[in-house]
Amino acid sequence: MLATRDDQSRPEWRDWAWQMRHRVRSAEGLAEFVDPVVDEVAAVAALADRFRFVITPYYASLMDPNDPECPIRRQVVPRGAELDDPAGLADPLDEIAHSPVKNVIRVYADRIAFCVNNECALYCRYCLRKRMVGDEDWTMRRRELETALAWIRETPSIRDVLLTGGDPLVFSDDKLAWLLGELRAIPHVEIVRLGTRLPVTLPFRVTPELCEMLAEHHPVWVNTHFNHPRELTAEAAEACDRLTRAGIPVGNQSVLLRGINDDTATMKALCEGLVRMRVRPYYCYQAQLLEGTGHFRVPIEDGMALFRGLRGRTSGFAIPLYVLDTPHGKVPLTHPHVRGREGDDVVVETFEGKLWREPNPL
Ligand SMILES: *Cc1c(COP(=O)(O)O)cnc(C)c1O
Ligand code: SF4
Fold it and tell me: What is the mean pLDDT of residues 61-78?
């Protein structure tokens, strides 16, 4: 049975397992939520063997049925433009070279990204995770996780472990509790963070039971991934509220995407909406040079101008740091507010573009 918009009135709609079982995976399934244009239907067929096409019914219900340029729709529905961008790289961050043990990416001395699975609730068109990988069973996955855990145990410099994937919240509570318990038993692991898009794409996953379990493993931090103000629904706000009430600081990492959130008004509405939900905008990523994503990329200068436009015009903590992820770590892409030294003064530029001379003798 294909999920439809009408399912929103059923009690199962709020059951995350029901949502996972009824995900949209075909052009027919898509047609239950939107009126697909020819380009979308053709792209679903043409990309079927290369990039996964999966959307949760909840997220599908946020799509504008009549507007193919809808910012929700463009994040998850394939388009023909994905086929005409052969310039992108398959592994732009050179993750393979930075992997001391399978599933661990180490770019910094004190912290790692630990890819605990390959599964997400849905697949974003701008992400490398949409590349096909086969399903694997838990026994094999658990053996791999144990190998990575052993490496963390033997590496005392690791104080911060970022669980990512895929998406760690696709795991059941039991599996996640096991993994967190193993990490928490390692004395030098001071903090654990989860990078998850499920508060955005499947907010019903954030159950009271999950939050209770996470709170048993504090300090736990969560970074989620909202890209557009239309994603800030009542359901998503409730999910974030449950997390913050469990004592988990929630941050947001978005991606700057052309035609989706690359104008000051949209980004400001997103950031201010997040702050109203007590979610702190943390990073906004420059979109990577990734196969099939050329139509999403924004020139870095335009991104810098966008974030410069927010400074001084909204709460300071509503403004994320615009960053470029590189194989050598994240690099801030910020407007140079410090113009330089002139004798005993340092000249800085205010948000309105005025120059200020700050006496600062050496
Ligand atoms: C982003 C990232 C981190 C965490 O970086 P922070 O700036 O501390 O948020 C750690 N390891 C890798 C490989 C990363 O990509
Ligand atoms: S949820 Fe995150 S990891 Fe998964 S496809 Fe989307 S951006 Fe990629």
Answer: 97
